[in-house]
Structures are given as C-alpha cells and as structure tokens.
Write a structure and sequence with these properties.
Blueprint (H helix, E strand, L loop, with lengths): L15 H10 L3 E4 L2 H10 L8 H11 L11 H5 L8 E4 L3 H11 L4 H4 L5 H16 L4 H10 L1 H6 L10
Keywords: Carbohydrate metabolism, Glycoprotein, Golgi apparatus, Membrane, Signal-anchor, Transferase, Transmembrane, Transmembrane helix
Family: Belongs to the sulfotransferase 2 family.
Subcellular location: Golgi apparatus membrane
Length: about 160
C-alpha cells in the first residue's frame, strides 16, 4: 500500500477507497483460538478480579459484548471475517503445521524460522483444563457462554469446543 506510514492502525480511520487498496495489497492472516480457551487463558493470567473461574465467567457475561476486554471479546466483533477476506486462518493448537505451510507459501525457509511448538501437549492441556473449568459452571452460565460466542462458533471450526454443544 502506497500511503505513507501512519500512527493510525484501525481500518475505521481510513476511507473506503484506502481500505480496499490496503486490504488488496496485503496477505491477510487471522489467528483464531477456541473462545473457551481464551477465557481460561485470561482467567489464569489474572485478567479478572474473581477468585473462581465461575465468578470470572459471570463478570464476562455481565459485561456484555460492548464493554468487554479484547482478551475475551467474540472474535467476530474483532476481526470482521464476513467483511475481510482473509488469505489464511491459523488455528491455535495447529500452529506448527499451519505456520510451516504459510512460511512455505511465502517462499521462506520453514525449519529455521519456526520455534519448537508442542501442539499436541497444548491441545491435551487445554482439553484437561476445559473439562475442569467447564464443570465449575452452572447450566445457565454454559448456555449464556454458548450464546455469547454463538457467531464465533458458527464462523470457525471449533468442533471440539465445550461451548459448541
């Protein structure tokens, strides 16, 4: 894109012609993660003031989609996949495989640039954490979370997500 570098990073700061030119000139990569895993990571990083996962989830649900942290805001509202045609969607948990493919397509050396990623261990750990933390939630909270992330679950293949049911 030919426009000089600017401090503005949000697309909404540009006009439609500039947005179309920018999006057409870049390779667009979207990294996505199961919304329930994002909630768990946020809780474990101490992003809420709650003593339990259940009360943290209730804080998230009470905040709604407008006043919520970007750490657990629905992906659909952050990345607009219906409006932006992403060239690649990289799923957390498959990073080594997908990043390797992406680097190869870009003509870059794969082995020298990829860090050691242990996707299988990450998937197993999050599966175990999900089971533990999901069991702490009430039936009402489970339903509300599924509704809160409904569009993320519809847009991306999070088939193993506890929220998918």
């Amino acid at each position: 894109y030919r426009r000089q570098h600017t401090k503005e990073t949000q697309l909404s700061k540009f006009n439609q012609t500039e947005i179309k030119a920018m999006l057409g000139s870049y390779t667009k990569v979207l990294f996505v993660r199961d919304p329930f895993h994002r909630l768990i990571a946020s809780f474990l990083q101490g992003m809420g003031i709650s003593p339990s996962f259940s009360s943290f989830v209730q804080e998230v649900l009470d905040s709604g989609t407008h006043n919520t942290s970007m750490a657990w805001k629905p992906l659909i509202s952050l990345c607009r996949p219906c409006l932006i045609h992403y060239d690649y969607v990289v799923m957390f948990g498959f990073l080594r495989q997908e990043l390797g493919h992406l680097l190869q397509r870009a003509g870059m050396p794969v082995d020298s640039l990829l860090p050691e990623l242990t996707d299988t261990q990450v998937q197993w750990t999050y599966r175990w954490l999900s089971e533990q933390m999901f069991s702490e939630l009430s039936v009402q909270q489970k339903k509300q979370l599924s509704h809160f992330y409904h569009w993320d679950l519809a847009a991306f293949p999070f088939s193993g997500s506890f929220l998918a049911d």
